[in-house]
# Entry
Amino acid sequence: MSSVISEIRKDFIYNLLLKGERVDGRTFDQYREISIERDVIRKAEGSALVKLGSSQVLVGIKMQPGEPFQDTPNRGVIITNAELVPLASPNFEPGPPNEVGIELARVVDRGVRESKAVDLEALCIVPGKQVWIIFIDVHILDDCGNILDAASLGAIAALLSTKVPASRFGLGEDYMLPINDIPVATTAIEFSDVLMFDPGVDEESIANTKLTVITTAKGEICGMQKSGKGLLKPEQIYRIVDIACEKAREIREKFLEA
Amino acid sequence: MDKSDISFFKDGLRLDGRRADQLRPIRIEVGVLARADGSCYIEMGGNKVIAAVYGPREVHPRHLQEVTRAIVRYRYNMASFSVEERKRPGPDRRSYELSKVSREALEPVIMTSYFPRSVIDVFVEVLQADAGTRTAGINAAAVALADAGIPMKSMISSCAAGKVADTIVLDPMKEEDNFGQADLPIAMTPGGDITLMQMDGGLSPDEFHQAVEMAMKGARDIYEMQRAALVEKYGKLEASTIEVKACE
# Structure
């Protein structure tokens, strides 16, 4: 799945980096421009189109009544799925999700689940028999790097705009999905001892390692994922976490809190 | 809901206020994706569809390559949230069929002999469905092919006609499609050569003629919009005036 990048391009990025610069002129911890457009899909219960620089991710939420898991009879169910459709990148191929897509979906899911963002108890209809099932479907449209952060942002933004379709199933009036927290994922790559946040697609392809940190509104970490075959020193991890909390707070305040 | 429960016309106009021979509002945007070689976003009524073209590029798996021409692949895919009842992700029998007929609608105008042993990939994602997704997909794909600079003999434009309450209507919307009496999607060149034709439901020969003519008129109008969208993007491009010196 790794994309082809020429040696010249790699050298170019490396030489810039030695001068403390990035390809698009950002500082190392600076995010590209973010835009979030909600309710773009009328057929979905909630949706959000996230643009992170040129990366574009669309997240749609569908809900339907279904059976609870046996060990959580009074709680709603979240199912997260990601499609890395071949429209989004020359490196994506049709077919069932590969490990990259599965990892992406699972990390997005982890943020929503572990932060307890959705009040699952409120989604019980008949205890042990019927609860609401929330499908979070992530559709990558344009992979220009760091689609994980974009997908996580899209997931929570879409959930925040989700209306439970109770009337369609004869279960009373529609109501807004109760949301208790706003998790935000931030990702950095490590390349030759330099940490770069919100990597572009070229930066991603030269990086040894990627670390994603998901934080809650209280500033707690609710999920992490290291990806890639490189090494990270503890100091590097602490530094990423520090900056991640800060960045997540900025993003949350600016784009997700009403 | 039963057929008889729906009245399709009110004061001579359709449920969404259109006349029988009127298209839904259409918006076409060229070059919406950074990674793709060509792309196009289209809204036709409630449909929201995005198309990307990659290539000509190397064929994988290799045994699919043709010595004398490029192969064309077309993948029609619906987002799971694009419809009322969540659709299971991935291809089903319907999307295989639509992919095939859509590919065959476009292939006749693509100059595949220019690119032997390569592939031109067309990917179509239906983000929101509201009847007529295949026609919207073909319209977007044709523009995306042009945007990718793929040599083509002409544009392809696609539109459906339908029959509701014994009346032939252009570009049926969801209710008309679900509870109507016939659906007839076509695709064609601006010269009037048909490259896609499907039909289901029931039409008399006269009605069929009427429906084809109506759909062709719709496709001609859509062609003008496709053309305008491409001119909008490429009409104002000027040749670069930067002087580039060769390395010695």
Notes: DSSP finds five helices and twelve strands in chain A.
